[in-house]
Amino acid sequence: MTAAKPSTWRVEREDLLLWVFAFTPVLAWIAAQQLSFLAARSICTSEHRWILYLVMGSAFAAAVSAGAVSWTKWKGHADGIPTYRRFIALGGVLLAAFCAVSILSLMIPAAIHRPCD
Questions:
Q1: pTM: predicted TM-score of the whole model, two decimal places
Q2: Alpha-helical regions (H) of the chain
Q3: Is the C or the N end of the chain the one with fewer CB within 10 Å?
């Protein structure tokens, strides 16, 4: 029988941060949709439309900031970073761009139409 070799691959802190920055825009998009849906009834009764702007603005800021961090991880130190880290960082940038556009598209009806019409 042969002895099993220990794995040389370790999960490092930077790998976990890259995954967090890649999934933050998606979670912000989901949270913006759900919170705006849940807040619709209270917005209709109180007519405080600023709640929608607060929810959408904070989700947009989270998506854009995670994309900016992923962009700096992708562009910075291209020589010494393994390629899988650059791939995850680029995926985070693309997810952030898609989710930021989606959050902006959620803001259009909130800005143009009244929530209770």
A1: 0.81
A2: 13-38, 40-46, 50-75, 83-112
A3: N
